[in-house]
């Protein structure tokens, strides 16, 4: 209990240094939160596109149903297909009528006989789309293949780049936070040199002197993590209606409460580690 009182007393005696330490840690965890939100959203978007028909193969008019079934079975045997949906001529006509229900002239001109049957295919992994697309193009049964290659490949490349850049920036920000925390706690140790000497003279142990500085670093880290999480979550909550409208049809928002609370828990654990590490380095460096 005495240790915690000493820690709080040290924080109150130098509010500007405490503010600087909390500010740096808040920026670090604010970026970590936003990066996690972006990574979660991009992953959900990829999962959404993976679950949608990504390749559509339109068959020639003269193709028989048995040939279509054989092609469908051969694709399923590759173990790269998550789902295949057969759309018959009649089903294609229903879709066409639904899409053009406000234009009677177009409805009169089109019958089921002139619409092609098709297969709507989704793969287990996005990377397998190109292979399936090439297989369908080589088939004599298929007249046309629609493949959203650009959308899928761009989304995947952006996600991979985001993951690499984000992790790199998190590491840099964490090192900067540790460096600044070491300096701030080191300054505080230097300011209390005389008090520390007196405590040693009356028989205070080494860790009795060190613990208040250790808890001080943990305090800065935890407060920074909570503030960073609150600011990022508040900004996300405010922006959710606009993002949902922009990403209409892709079920990303709102983010689950369990995910947000889990992120807070992980950030507090990381904050304790960063605070402990920076305090320990400062104690070793300045308190000999």
Briefly say what this structure is.
This protein is of the alpha+beta class and 288 residues long. The chain is built from ten helices and four strands, in the order ααβαβααβαβαααα. The chain folds into two domains: 181 residues, no CATH class; 93 residues, Alpha-Beta Plaits (2-Layer Sandwich), CATH 3.30.70.
Textual characterization of the structure:
This protein is 73% helix and 8% strand. It has 2 domains: 2-48 and 153-286, no CATH class; 55-147, Alpha-Beta Plaits. The protein has a 4-stranded antiparallel sheet with strand order 2-3-1-4. The protein has helices spanning 2-13, 15-51, 65-76, 89-99, 104-109, 129-138, 149-191, 193-201, 206-246, 257-286; strands spanning 55-59, 81-87, 118-123, 142-147. The protein is α+β, with helices and mostly antiparallel strands and 288 residues long.
Write the layout of secondary structure elements.
Layout: H1 2-13, H2 15-51, E1 55-59, H3 65-76, E2 81-87, H4 89-99, H5 104-109, E3 118-123, H6 129-138, E4 142-147, H7 149-191, H8 193-201, H9 206-246, H10 257-286
Antiparallel strand pairs: 1-3, 1-4, 2-3
Helix pairs in contact: 1-9, 2-7, 2-9, 7-10, 9-10
């Amino acid at each position: 209990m005495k240790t915690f009182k000493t820690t709080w007393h040290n924080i109150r005696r130098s509010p500007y240094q405490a503010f600087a330490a909390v500010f740096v840690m808040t920026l670090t965890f604010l970026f970590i939160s936003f990066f996690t939100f972006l990574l979660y959203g991009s992953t959900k978007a990829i999962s959404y596109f993976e679950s949608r028909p990504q390749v559509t193969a339109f068959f020639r008019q003269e193709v028989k149903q048995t040939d279509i079934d054989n092609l469908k079975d051969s694709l399923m045997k590759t173990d790269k297909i998550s789902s295949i949906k057969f759309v018959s001529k009649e089903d294609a006509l229903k879709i066409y009528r639904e899409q053009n229900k406000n234009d009677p002239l177009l409805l009169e001109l089109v019958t089921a006989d002139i619409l092609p049957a098709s297969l709507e295919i989704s793969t287990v992994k996005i990377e397998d789309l190109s292979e399936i697309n090439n297989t369908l193009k080589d088939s004599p049964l298929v007249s046309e293949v629609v493949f959203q290659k650009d959308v899928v490949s761009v989304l995947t490349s952006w996600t991979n780049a985001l993951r690499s850049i984000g992790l790199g920036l998190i590491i840099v920000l964490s090192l900067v936070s540790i460096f600044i925390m070491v300096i701030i706690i080191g300054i505080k140790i230097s300011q209390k040199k005389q008090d520390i000497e007196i405590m040693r003279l009356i028989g205070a142990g080494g860790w009795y002197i060190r613990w208040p500085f250790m808890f001080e670093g943990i305090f800065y880290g935890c407060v920074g993590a909570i503030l960073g999480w609150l600011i990022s979550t508040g900004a996300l909550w405010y922006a959710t209606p606009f993002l949902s409208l922009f990403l209409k049809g892709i079920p990303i928002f709102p983010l689950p409460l369990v995910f947000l609370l889990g992120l807070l828990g992980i950030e507090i654990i990381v904050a304790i580690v960063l605070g402990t590490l920076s305090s320990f380095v400062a104690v070793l460096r300045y308190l000999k």
